[in-house]
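Re: the multi-chain job from yesterday

Posting the exact lines I submitted so nobody has to dig through the queue logs.
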Amino acid sequence: MENENRNAQKGMQLPNPHLAQMTDDNLYHFGISRTSHDLPALFGDVKFVCIGGSARRMENFAHYIGNELGVVSENERLPNLAGNSDRFVLYKAGPVLSANHGIGVPSMSVALHELLKMLYYAGSRDVTFIRIGTCGGIGKSFSHAMYGTCVSTGVPPGSVIVSNAAVNGKMEHAFETVVLAKGIHRPIIVDQELASEISSCSRTEDPFKIILGKTYCTDDFYEGQARTHGAVCDISEEDELQFVKHLNSQGVKNIEMESAGFFALCHKAGVKCSVVCVTFIDRLSTEDVTADADVLSEWTQRPQVLVARFIKKRLVISV
Ligand code: URA
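And the result, structure tokens for all chains:
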């Protein structure tokens, strides 16, 4: 792909002519500016940027991947490089950056713009971006005489979905945003090779499923994801069930709130990217996340384990 070749050959290039005229650039939400930090020295060797919603999860991931790569020792605590800001956190473990992006595309895109510029100013090359997230899942259900209820087999909670397609809230393969008060559409392009490479890091002994599938990206957790238990609601439980069944019939495997903007912005910027999320619930069975904190915490590590294997494979570290 034209954009990707551009960034594989040279240091990262960004499609914004204004950047070349700027003598400084304040990456405000990370509390880092082009002149306050030696960006090439700090980030020039970065090869992977892993982002996810929660600050604590991404701090944990930084330590986990650092241990796995042998660049962070067991009791070592990495500094938060975005310590001057209370918006996002940023950790570096060898060639891996780990940052949080908050909830939803608007927050994620602020983080992504600034991370892209950080690595552009650093002169980083051939960088892969991966979103490590949580999501709702959609499995196929069937009635089972033994249980007397609907049983879901396709995407049990705790499954890991590697997106091989993503659609926006209107089920379009385009990310819709507003610039100069006009709606614009940017294509959602998924790197199939990268998605397959990551999902192929599964192992037969993994106690969870790893599924390549289509992701439905919404702008809201409640009504936007056909939930009826938000503070306001104009849809019925029947509407919810029919809609989730419709998503299922369209091959959607999971629902989250960032993939459309993430894929579209990374493609526009010319960097390779992938989205790897663990499902917390099966939306064909329930709308509420009810698993207890310990279970959710173990599930949350599953995409991290898969992504760590991928990174080690790429860095040719025995896995
Ligand atoms: N994140 C979402 O956006 N939806 C869910 O159901 C779970 C996590």
